Amino acid sequence: MTWWRPSATPSRCDWAGAGLERGRELTMRKHAASWPAGWVWLGVLAGGLAALAPGVRGETAATQPGQEKYRAHVEALTKRVPGGFTIVPARPFVVVGDEPADIVRQRAAQTVGWAVRLLKRDYFSKDPDPIIDIWLFQDQASYRQHAWELFHDRPTTPYGYYSARHHALIMNIATGGGTLVHEIVHPFMAANFPQCPPWFNEGMGSLYEQCEERHGHILGLTNWRLAGLQQAIRQGPLPPFKDLCSLEAEGFYGPNTGGSGGAGGSGLHYAMARYLCYYLQQQGLVIRFYKEFREHADEDPSGYQTLQRVTGERDLAGFQKRWQAWVLELRFP
Ligand SMILES: [Zn+2]
What pLDDT sits at residue 63? Predict the structure, then answer.
């Protein structure tokens, strides 16, 4: 099953305030022909330790929880990465890219590292296991070529996808960084809230497609999915929240997985889920909702009752009407 759902318009994140962390910059560009393998490897390890604990000095790798496993993982990865790629440890992930080394480092720090830090602060205590590689290919040609050469995949989407078999996120990064943040939410959700139904998993992923940091927290902003949702609300009726929340993967993603944000198929499910999460965020309730939903998932697997309790809305049909009116007032850009 793929986690990836493409956007019709390349999405992006607003990285204002996401400063580059110097401690995460230590990386080595792999030049298989020019550097002895051991030398390259030492550089990668140095980057890995710095990424793990930039402020901790003098500790051996063995004292770092999970460090041995991470080290072994990066070592194995180093052996199969083609020349011209840069490997950047960005725990709990590893970023590999064929853009200029500075750009790959920047993406690892300013997109992956930044999102991981903020998502963990508000939501996720457990790291994804196994370790997931984030492959960032510089353009469509590189993406398709390497998806085949490295994974024997012929991608069905121009944007990127998650390969469960390879524990790899395989992306055409030319389509934007916001989709990368969306994808990063999914392995964290799987590790921390494995029973999470599709609506909340995709709602939270897509909430952060367009985001910024405010007062040390990640904040979703309105984005390109709004127009299609507003159009669907005007045309009506939308599926009731009760139905949306109860959808299993097949029903949520459906045969129409275009993710267009338009009035039909899965695009509408994504947009409804996103703007329900956005509403919770704007009411200051999204973190509480996540925690209570997780706690009560056994007796309330759809989250419907948790939604009633957290919003204080017993009549969710009436609530949905007011939510729809609220969505119609939103603006993007
Ligand atoms: Zn997704």
Answer: 52
Q: Tell me, in angstroms, the distance from the centre of ligand 1 to residue 150's CA.
A: 23
Q: Which residues surround ligand 1, an ion (CB under 5 A)?
A: 5, 202, 205
pLDDT < 50 stretches in the chain = 1-62, 256-264
Per domain, the residue ranges of the chain are 22-192, 198-329
pLDDT of residue 55: 30
Look at residue 36 in the predicted model and tell me its pLDDT.
Answer: 27
- Pair 8, 259: CB distance under 8 Å: yes
Sign of the CA dihedral running 259, 277, 249, 11: positive
Give the Cα separation of 23 and 49 in Å (integer). 9
Q: How remote is the CA of residue 142 from the centroid of ligand 1, in Å?
A: 23
* pLDDT value for 115: 96
What long-range pairs does 150-159 form, CB within 8 A, spacing at least 24? 150/80, 150/82, 157/4, 157/6, 158/6, 159/4, 159/6, 159/7
116 Cα: distance to centroid of ligand 1 (angstroms): 16
Hey, what CATH topology would domain 22-192 get?
Glutaredoxin (3.40.30)
160 burial level (CB within 10 Å; 0-12, 13-18, 19+): buried
Q: Cα-Cα-Cα-Cα dihedral of 252, 257, 258, 263, to 10°?
A: -40
One DSSP character per residue, 256-271 reads ------SSSHHHHHHH
175, 158 contact by CB (below 8 A): yes
CA of 202 to the centre of ligand 1 (A): 5
Q: How remote is the CA of residue 146 from the centroid of ligand 1, in Å?
A: 22
Structure tokens at 234: 């005007």
- pTM over 0.85? The answer is no
Query: What is the spatial distance between Cα 232 and Cα 215, in angstroms, rounded to a whole number?
Result: 34
